[in-house]
Amino acid sequence: MTSMTVRKPNRALDLLTDLIQQYVKTNPKSANENKRACKVMPAGNTRAVFVYQPFPLVMYFAGMFGHSHPSIKHALEEATKTGFNLGAPSKKEIELAEAITSRFPSMDMVQFCTSGTEANTLAIAVGLNYSKRKKVVVFENGYHGNTLSFKRPNALRLPHEFILAPYNDIAGTHQILQPDVGVIIVEPMQGAGGMVPASRAFLSFLREQATKLGAILIFDEVVTARTHYHGLQGYYNIIPDMTTIGKFYGGGLPFGAYGGRREIMDTLDSRAINSLHHSGTWHNNIFTMSAGLAAVELLSARNIEKANQLGTQLREGLDVVFNVSRPDTAVVRGFGSLVGVHFLGPDSDALRDAFYFFLLTRKIYVGHRGFLCLSIVHKEEHIQAVLEAVKEFCRAAFPKSTM
User: Superkingdom of the source (predicted)?
Assistant: First the structure.
């Protein structure tokens, strides 16, 4: 007599299988575009976070300002009338620099570039040059761009002398700090690392240690600059030596910037002998400068606070939904307008994927990693729609749920 292995029911996996079948059936155009893309791009994409099975949804993504904000659209239309790239400094470049330095307490001066990755790369180099040292403290699960990712082993990583420290761990970080550290770079809230805010105590500790060691403290606010008018450095009143920003301060166009104390940034003054040479054809392109100026106006304290309030409402609502349906199923993290849902337990991956595909059936698009980022055009009705959809998801994923 032979024994047969009976498959133990797995609700999360079965739900995911059904959802993927439905997804494939309803998105044939995206499937075809992915097949086409895979012939000319590895995995059919140039952003690894958009690579998932069976294929990514092909669409236009909304950022901090929604899909096509009229103010940014108008700024770009006006830019087409003045010349695309004049090959010289422009008034808009000065205006955007003035607007940005007026917001961030750490930025006496600023330099533009074309991405957050580039901003962090340059800020580290400038900081090491100023401190005359070579070692850089970074944090586990940190992400400062393609070449500065510390989530896993990465052959694309820049060849600096990195010291990997535990995030949000004062004692653990203190143990590995060394007197010859030249730069400490940290996200006040880890974005790609899971929407994990740093504690005020941890950031204060880093500020104290950087001062004590004579190291340059860099806040990577490429993600967190959207959460407070003065960035999280302003919210916590903990001022780094340098700051990097990107994304939305370019109005959705390719943009990055780094800035800091005047004496640090003066090392980039090309009028001086032996200065650092920062240059780039597209750093001050008229489209980004114009869109950036429109973005600065849109990112008013009022609009930021409105998005933050909706984010808080969404986090608190999701917390209730998950805890009522099945406690210890998910953790909801984030700050301001940024929300991260992290599923727990052995079925966490299946639940994460099912969550993503289920919300798509309700016409709600979130980051595949469980990220929900609110924009200035979102309203309370959108928050309620998400919460209702998540209640439906919980009923489907956890049949005994009372939601």
Answer: Eukaryota
